[in-house]
Amino acid sequence: MGDEGLFGPRTVTWHLHADPAMWIAGVCSLYLQALHPRAVAAVVQNSRFQDDPLGRLMRTGNFVGTTVYGTTAEAEKAAERVRAVHRKLRGTDRQTGAEIRLDEPELLLWVHCAEVSSFAGVVRRAGFPLTAAQLDRYFDEQRRSAALVGLDPAAVPGSSREMAAYFARMRPQLRRTEDSDLIYRFLHRPFAPWWLLPVNLGYLPLGHLAYSVLPDWARRIHGRPAYSPPAIALGLRSFRAAMLAVPDELRFRYPGGHVQRAVDRLGREALPNPAALTGR
Is 131 helix (H, G, I), strand (E, B) or coil? Predict the structure, then answer.
């Protein structure tokens, strides 16, 4: 096999991140990230996401896809670009007026934990077979992603218990703000060009489904109603089943083609498959 990159087919990350429920999990993570007042203020003040919503989502997806499925050199190059952007950008704390650096470890850690906890939690709820031990392995593996953005891996939660303890510590700092409301509204509106009407119509219920799968405590802070538990379960599993019905040769080419390029590089034994984790 060629260069497996930072993860490779023997990791939980390799198989979990190729699951189609990651589409919903990624949007869910944005709702969760928005509850940190300083983190969301920095995003709103520095990002063009409202002018270029599809481009912003695709750039984030491409970064995650490259770091998981790209070569080691590709992952490190993508990470250096992100670190360089974070070093330059500044925001302003809306409450105190203090400067916010986007490369502050506290903010980087919040974004990391919001992402990976959402990825694992939502994909698991959608039907991806993940044992408690494999979930711990996933959080431990994701310390490699944390290191890419400049965090000390030893300071990053590496198990379910450590992740739960982190969120318990953070909850007193989280709140609903004008910025979090802006993100909520943004993630509930069509994001594709007007001429992609079917895409927009299909996204609208998924945008609220992604909100509905937030942890209960996070939805209470947002203060917005969610779908009912039966509707959530049906929506998650139906979406996943419909996407899994798409042939691998087509499904793994979107978005960005990262998975397919990894399979082309490493061979068909590298195809993501939850069954490959059985017994590991």
Answer: coil
Residue 160 CB: number of other CB atoms within 10 A?
A: 17
Q: How far is it, in rounded angstroms, from Cα 4 to Cα 68?
A: 9
Cα four-point dihedral sign 186, 220, 167, 235 = negative
**Tokens of residue 11, six digits:** 């990791």
Among candidate residues 63, 68, 59, the one with its CA nearest the CA of residue 79: 63
- 100 phi, psi to nearest 5 deg: -115, 125
Q: What is the pTM of this model?
A: 0.92
CB contact at 8 A, 176 and 223: yes
Sign of torsion, CA 223 226 229 232?
Answer: negative
**Domain-wise residue ranges, the chain:** 12-277
> How is residue 158 written in tokens?
């590496």
pLDDT tens-place string over residues 218-260: 999 999 999 999 999 999 999 999 999 999 888 998 778 999 9
